[in-house]
Amino acid sequence: MSKRTTLDRRIVPVLPKPEDTASRRDGVSVATERYHRLHGTSLLLDAADALNVSSASCYATACVLFHRFYHQISLREVDVWSAAMGSFLLAVKIEELTISLKQVIATFLRLYRKRKMILLEDDEVVQWIMKQPSIAYDSSAALPFAQKDSLIRENDNTSASINPFGPLWKEWQEVVIETENKILRALGFTVYWIPDHHPHKFILYVLRVLEVDSHKGLAQLAWNYCNDSCRLDLCVRFEAHLMACAAICLAASEQGVVLPDSSLPTTIKWWEVLCGPGHEAELDVIQKELLALKDKESDVVMASVAFVKSLVKNESFNDPQSFSWESIK
């Protein structure tokens, strides 16, 4: 008798035990899991920028898929490169964008080349990365900056680098599609609700309610904080409207905009009208975690610019040193 799979089709935006991840149960530390997730979401952000898609649609949806997937599946089973490509491809379909599988693979190949060259202007960051053999892929360490940039420009036509009829392309296609199917199975094939649960969708509404939407740059700054929230697993820990309110609080504080608490009773905060009472601690946690992303000494920069070796046993298909990447230099 064939093995049956039971799918959980319930819509649960906030997971009951978000800290109880598959990686944690598999012996992966909190810091290591955070580092790998930051690495994966940085790939999603760069891919969205490269393909010029909206941050409130494809990128945010891909990040939610990515984080929810890794709540069910361990980092020792699927590496972040595969998960990022699978999440991005699935997000493209959910958002009904006209981006092909070939474009997705070509985009991630371009990201690989740029990261392999470690195209940075911050010498201190480069030096830190080069001292971490377990983190960095240092084959280009001796190349001067101008030569790195030249190599990237020479090889920028990534779609021509892969023969769409060759064995390498077929293997890439199979791995990406297989990972996409793993994500769907892990999430119970219930993903249609995700685009309607992004914090971005609340920003303009809340600013209009507070009558501060006329302040130049406030909405964009709050929007940027919502983008930052996608880097972390906040989407499985907090409701979207809470993240939106936290983003507005940070944006208003940064721009010196006074939010209209004065029109309310002294015991009521503006966000309590929108979120209800009893969420002050949650808003505080969200704001602190978003601000921590701006710490240049943290692991955020390193995860965003360097290669992070996968935790998959016997290496993974998308490791920088694997035959698949090296064969298309």
Structural description of this entry:
This protein has about 325 residues and is mainly α. The protein folds into 2 domains: about 200 residues, Cyclin A, domain 1, CATH 1.10.472; about 100 residues, Orthogonal Bundle (Cyclin A, domain 1). About 10% of the residues have low confidence.
**Structural domain count:** 2
Strand content is under 5%
Secondary structure tally: strands: 0
Q: Can you say what the CATH homologous superfamily of the largest domain is?
A: Cyclin-like
Given as residue ranges, the uncertain stretches (5+ residues, pLDDT < 50) are 119-123, 133-149, 151-155
Tell the overall outline. Answer: globular
Distance between the termini: 46 Å
Rg (C-alpha, Å)? 21 Å
Oligomer: single chain
Tally of DSSP helical segments: 15
Element order, helices and strands?
A: HHHHHHHHHHHHHHH
By CATH, the architecture of the largest domain is named Orthogonal Bundle
* Helix-strand category: mainly alpha
Main sheet?
none
Helix content: 55-70%
Question: What brief labels describe this structure?
Answer:
single chain; 0% strand; mainly alpha; 15 helices; globular; Cyclin A, domain 1; 2 domains; 329 residues
Question: Which helices and strands, and how do they pair?
Answer:
Layout: H1 22-25, H2 30-50, H3 55-72, H4 80-94, H5 101-117, H6 123-130, H7 145-154, H8 167-186, H9 200-209, H10 218-229, H11 240-255, H12 270-275, H13 280-292, H14 299-305, H15 323-326
Helix pairs in contact: 2-3, 2-4, 2-5, 2-14, 3-4, 4-8, 5-7, 9-10, 9-11, 10-11, 11-13
Protein name: Cyclin-like domain-containing protein
InterPro entries: Cyclin-like_dom (IPR013763), Cyclin-like_sf (IPR036915), Cyclin/Ssn8 (IPR043198)
Organism: Fistulifera solaris (Oleaginous diatom)
